[in-house]
Design the sequence.
């Protein structure tokens, strides 16, 4: 924590100001001074520098931040005083935008979501924080999740993260990885037994050691080798769920169906469903797909390239085989075992209207050096089938699975949380932010926990050409673990006259003190990796006891599509059709592709990089 030095003469003040100027940190008479050691120097006269901080959240989060602000003000008594103002969740973004565009600084520190900060940075609303971070002892980038802190780095000229003028425009207030919350009571009702064994511990578990719940395979009564499966049936017909291994797409559907049917019968309630998700990301990203891809071009109309809309791209994807330790080089780029070939590298010419796969990829597949993965379109079809009722044919011969309620019956975020907490949904894809609600509403009624998001996997079957060291049921082809996380940044208003004081508060909240307080309350995972791997966050004495899943997810989960470009104008129209008509069953996937709101996306994307 900062040491507060007290100025005892005007000579010391002058010296401090000279040091500040040398460091390039501008100040105003009302702002605090930060010396070259990153320490705060108290202003003359003993009058505190007052700053305004805007936040939002539920009752629990507001309570946590009220206490954090109180402790900060006590720590910096006579130096900095923070006025904490809470805003409504629904209208916060509008209020923040209006405040930032104002000629007077109504707020000094505020939350900015990962969907908004690029446009705010381009408009000059935010202060770049690079020089502050460089001298900070609290914000150490090497100890923070790259998937979170780097999402707030942006070059407003090149619109990329790694351009020559890229700056950090905020530091994470938190990171919220998504996982699958599951109702273990409902699993037991369906005679599904739960174990907890990480992939790296499967061999030890099979050799008699205990799992994360403290039991051996023999004590569970498992009489078969436990393989890398999220859901499996043993040789005696017993059903097992491993909450540390991602389910395959088919395992997720099978388990959801079993749990749904068993609990509908037990409770005589046809409104109970096995699963609910509203996000396609982990499906598409697991196989290397995405909704847009960057196409470099020398066309003078664009600033080096443009974006192609690839949500329904039918070209297959390719991943380097796990045993290909030498890796391969495609289009001049090296790929190692387990890495997926980039969209631009797998195609002969990404600018062509008819996309053609590089011929050498099929040769590498035949040689066993590459494995074929589903296309982005295949992944998207799977996502739609998961959310569709069985009476709707998503693609020819591919009806919905009937395991999810329609969005209209669920409502928004509050509705899905209520559905899971109230036992209407057995498994729910959601973020860490819902943990506090579930503890309050479920602990007295249900056993519940978390597990990883589904991942694309195929297994060796009878009749396959099984290599030495593998057996039936082992993983044959797999995608990568993938999913999205949410994050909100603490940002400094570029018009603030008290930027140094604002930074000191950001540092306090984004550093270990603020992160620990949020983690202890249960709604956030700390930005610091070492802190996240302790009981401060894991809290193994209460639900969810498998919180290590959040930590692992934070390592690989990335921002959703709302983060890709400076605004969401290219998303809003097609997403409204998808999340409304398609997922509610009033439009087919073919009708979706023919909808003008979908077709107009290509032209909208071109505007982002046009000169």
Sequence:
């Amino acid at each position: 924590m900062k040491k507060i030095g007290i100025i005892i003469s005007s000579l010391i003040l002058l010296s401090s100001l000279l040091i500040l100027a040398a460091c390039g940190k501008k100040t105003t008479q009302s702002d605090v001074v930060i010396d070259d050691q990153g320490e705060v120097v108290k202003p003359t006269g003993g009058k505190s520098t007052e700053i305004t901080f805007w936040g939002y959240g539920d009752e629990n989060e507001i309570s946590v931040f009220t206490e954090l602000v109180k402790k900060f003000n006590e720590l910096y008594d006579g130096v900095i005083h923070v006025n904490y103002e809470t805003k409504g969740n629904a209208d916060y973004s509008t209020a923040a935008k209006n405040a930032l565009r104002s000629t007077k600084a109504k707020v000094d520190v505020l939350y900015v979501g990962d969907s908004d900060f690029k446009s705010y940075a381009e408009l000059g609303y935010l202060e770049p924080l690079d020089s502050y971070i460089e001298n900070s002892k609290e914000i150490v980038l090497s100890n923070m999740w790259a998937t979170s802190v780097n999402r707030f780095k942006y070059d407003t000229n090149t619109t990329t993260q790694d351009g020559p003028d890229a700056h950090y425009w905020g530091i994470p207030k938190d990171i919220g990885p998504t996982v699958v919350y599951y109702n273990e009571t409902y699993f037991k009702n369906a005679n599904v037994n739960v174990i907890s064994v990480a992939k790296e511990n499967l061999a030890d578990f099979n050799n008699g050691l205990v799992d994360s719940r403290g039991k051996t395979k023999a004590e569970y009564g498992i009489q078969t080798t436990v393989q890398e499966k999220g859901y499996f049936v043993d040789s005696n017909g017993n059903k097992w769920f491993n909450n540390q291994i991602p389910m395959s797409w088919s395992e997720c559907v099978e388990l959801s169906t079993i749990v749904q049917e068993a609990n509908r019968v037990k409770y005589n309630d046809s409104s109970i469903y096995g699963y609910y998700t509203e996000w396609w990301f982990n499906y598409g990203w697991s196989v290397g797909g995405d909704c847009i891809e960057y196409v470099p071009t020398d066309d003078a109309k664009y600033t080096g390239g443009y974006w192609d809309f690839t949500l329904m791209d039918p070209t297959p994807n390719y991943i380097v085989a796990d045993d290909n330790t030498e890796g391969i080089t495609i289009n001049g780029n090296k790929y190692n075992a387990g890495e997926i070939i980039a969209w631009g590298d797998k195609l002969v010419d990404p600018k062509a209207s008819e996309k053609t796969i590089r011929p050498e990829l099929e040769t590498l597949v035949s040689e066993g050096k590459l494995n074929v993965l589903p296309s982005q379109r295949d992944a998207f079809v799977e996502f739609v089938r998961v959310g569709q009722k069985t009476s709707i044919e998503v693609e020819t011969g591919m009806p919905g699975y009937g395991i999810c309620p329609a969005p209209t019956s669920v409502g928004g975020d509050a509705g899905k949380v209520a559905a899971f907490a109230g036992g209407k949904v057995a498994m729910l894809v959601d973020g860490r932010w819902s943990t506090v609600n579930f503890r309050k509403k479920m602990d007295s009624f249900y056993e519940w926990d978390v597990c990883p998001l589904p991942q694309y996997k195929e297994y060796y079957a009878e009749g396959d050409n099984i290599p030495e060291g593998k057996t039936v049921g082992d993983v044959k082809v797999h995608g990568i673990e993938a999913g999205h996380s949410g994050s909100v940044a603490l940002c400094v208003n570029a018009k603030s006259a008290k930027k140094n004081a604002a930074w000191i508060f950001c540092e306090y909240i984004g550093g270990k003190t603020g992160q620990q307080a949020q983690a202890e309350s249960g709604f956030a995972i700390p930005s610091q990796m070492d802190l996240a791997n302790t009981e401060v966050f894991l809290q193994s004495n209460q639900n969810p006891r498998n919180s290590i899943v959040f930590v692992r997810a934070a390592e690989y989960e990335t921002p959703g599509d709302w983060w890709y470009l400076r605004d969401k104008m290219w998303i809003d129209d097609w997403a409204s059709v998808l999340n409304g008509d398609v997922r509610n069953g009033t439009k087919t996937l073919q009708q979706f592709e023919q909808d003008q709101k979908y077709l107009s996306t290509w032209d909208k994307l071109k505007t982002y990089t046009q000169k």
